[in-house]
Amino acid sequence: MEFDRPKGVEMHLDIAPLIDIVFMLLLFFMLTSSFVTDNGIELNLPQAETGKIQEESEPVVIYIDQDQRIFLDNETFELEQLEKSLAEKLKNSQLKKVVLKSDEAVPMGFVVKVMDIARQAKGENLIISTKKVEGVMHGEE
Predict the structure, then answer these.
(1) CATH of the domain at 127
(2) Mean pLDDT of successive 10-residue segments in the chain (141 residues)?
(3) Are 111 and 62 in contact (CB under 8 A)?
(4) By the 8 A CB rule, do 41 and 66 touch?
(5) Based on the structure, what is the number of domains in the chain?
(6) Which domain holds residue 98?
(7) Is residue 12 part of a domain?
């Protein structure tokens, strides 16, 4: 007695269209992505041996570059506009802490003007950011 068994169905997976789609997506992302690097603000901070590390607790940071341009939240401000914008920013801040990051080439008189504006805008705990002198350990003389 012989039974006729149904022959197995041959399975065949054609992956050529899948590879085509993957290469098309790869090509799409390569052509549409832009390699923009955030240049940031180039500063050369002054050095200090007695500087202390401050805990970052959402301070308001003011940057002054060597061309005496003032940056607050990546926006450039003139000296006259800074107080109003800083006061608005500090209104939402609980600690009213202001960190000043100024290039060492900026004249001290300009830095003092910015510090004065920060105080007029109700900024408290004004911190001047520096970089640590290399090779000097804390407490070393």
Answers:
(1) 3.30.420
(2) 73 89 94 72 77 72 90 86 88 83 90 90 85 65 42
(3) no
(4) no
(5) 1
(6) 60-131
(7) no
